[in-house]
Design a protein that fits this description.
Order of helices and strands: HHEEHEEEEHHH
Helix content: 40-55%
Number of helices: 6
Strand order of the largest sheet: 2-1-6-5-4-3
Structural class: alpha+beta
Distance between the termini: 39 Å
Radius of gyration: 15 Å
């Protein structure tokens, strides 16, 4: 196992145990994160997002990861998050493919990809089933996610 594979494993082991500080220690100061729910986040926003998600789960989130691959420049992992979506309390099993770019031995770019429609059907129920495929629903979810992050950050400071 090379150092970047170890770094990915450390990140997800931290996530699985609810340790946002361990996760943050794996990121470069100029981290850029992107996924279908939050869109593109940078720097402290990325760290705060993970911290918020861990806190909102109240210990009721299961994180599993496999197929860790990495070389000197990039890496990937398959991970699964099982949790209750906070807005609806509906059970979600989200299968995610993450890709990474490394700089100075740390993760500088982290991109999560998942089937948004499948996620929205689980998280939102009928509205997700009917509209989860649409750009409108994706934009609405992104607005709500960013609003939650900004509220979390305002309480933290």
């Amino acid at each position: 196992m090379n150092q970047h594979q170890q770094l990915i494993e450390e990140f997800y082991a931290g996530f699985a145990t609810g340790n946002a500080k361990t996760m943050a220690s794996c990121y470069h100061i100029d981290i850029v994160f992107e996924d279908p729910a939050f869109g593109k986040l940078e720097g402290q926003d990325v760290l705060d997002m993970w911290e918020m998600l861990i806190e909102k789960s109240k210990g009721n989130m299961k994180i599993e990861f496999s197929d860790v691959r990495a070389d000197e420049l990039s890496g990937s992992v398959k991970w699964v998050a099982t949790y209750n979506f906070s807005k609806t309390n509906r059970n979600v099993v989200n299968v995610i493919r993450a890709s990474f770019v490394f700089k100075d031995g740390l993760i500088i770019k982290h991109t999560d990809e998942f089937d948004f429609w499948k996620w929205s059907k689980q998280a939102l129920g009928l509205p997700g089933y009917l509209l989860g495929w649409s750009g409108f629903m994706q934009q609405k979810v992104r607005q709500n996610a960013l609003q939650s992050l900004r509220y979390y950050q305002s309480k933290k400071r």
